[in-house]
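Re: that chain you flagged

S.,

Sorry for the slow reply, it's been a week of failed gels. I finally had a moment to sit down with the sequence you sent. For the record, here it is as I used it:
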Amino acid sequence: MTQETNLLPADLDQALMVGRVWRAASADCPVAGPAVVAVRRGRLVDITRHAATVAELFERDDMLAIVRGAEGEDLGDALALVRSAARGSLDGSVKLLAPCDLQAIKACGVTFAVSLLERVIEEQAKGDPGRAGELRAQLQASIGTNLSQIEPGSEAALRLKEELAGRGLWSQYMEVGIGPYAEVFTKSQPMSAVGHGAAVGLHPASHWNNPEPEIVLAVNSRGQVVGGALGNDVNLRDIEGRSALLLGKAKDNNGSCAIGPFIRLFDGAFSLDALREAEVGMLIEGLDDGFTLEGRSRMREISRDPLDLVGQTWGAHHQYPDGFMLFLGTMFSPIKDRDAPGKGFTHHLGDRVSISTPSLGTLVNTVQRSDGIEPWTFGVRALYNNLARRGLLAAAGAH
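Prediction finished late last night. Pasting the structure tokens below so you have them in one place:
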């Protein structure tokens, strides 16, 4: 089981974080709705009247000052809330939500050599997990496992591309893995991500799938990276393996994107360099069979620098007026057999997935079907209607 002492950053007293919670109606909060919260020295503070959306907060030049010291209502101990959510107790006057709101949710694929090989295997297997083991051995014998030494877009990468094409081994995944352009796709819609403690969803048509533990950058409309969080880029290997044109069906479903527990902001004690050196751990625990699987992603092995991925997403070619969240990719591709020899890993319903790194804490979610979890109904229109009822629209966009 996940150590509950690791649910929040190891240096919690120094960590400056922001997130979102759902507040039930009460005397202090007559209309139920989402609130923007700061985490200061382990306490949750409602700062919604200063910035009614996280997207708006990230546009403010005084963002750090607001999160550090703006007056707000104390909602209690942050660790107690994330601990309760990790245990599956989602009842109460305050419930965790994903820490982003209006931002687009983008993701980068094939940014690690290991995951590059697994995407090629999915493509070659045409969605059949039973062929994965044989194909993996063939590919490793043909091209080795040292692709991490190849700089994408370099002359060496172009020479390798020509060599692989000549041997009939070139793949569209190789193109984005070692070619000049990164794979950047729309992972999910604004307001659709689920948070820590929620269920993530698998499309009911999928029978070969896995979590993808990743670092997620929070970027404002000016392309400034303001902080980072943990994410689960839920992956349907059989769907995408049949055709890359099914990427939308494989990646964007109800509950298919989890981010949390909070976004840690860059300040004097924390920077992008800390994320460049982060090691992201993941633990899968099977509810029905006692199966466990652990894996790690070492960010220093990423093939493209995080700022390069931001630059390929945002710029003169593409603007994001509400900012965006950017999944950086994973090197985790589970191949441990679960149900039968040679079949590799796939989720069972009820699996508990814990994704962690010391500087960001732990994101915990359980696995269900996307058509069996709570439907997504609270979108952008609902948010602004709710803010209007609460008299908070000025705080949502006046600055």
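What I noticed first: Residues 3 and 362 are 9 Å apart (CA to CA).

Talk soon,
D.
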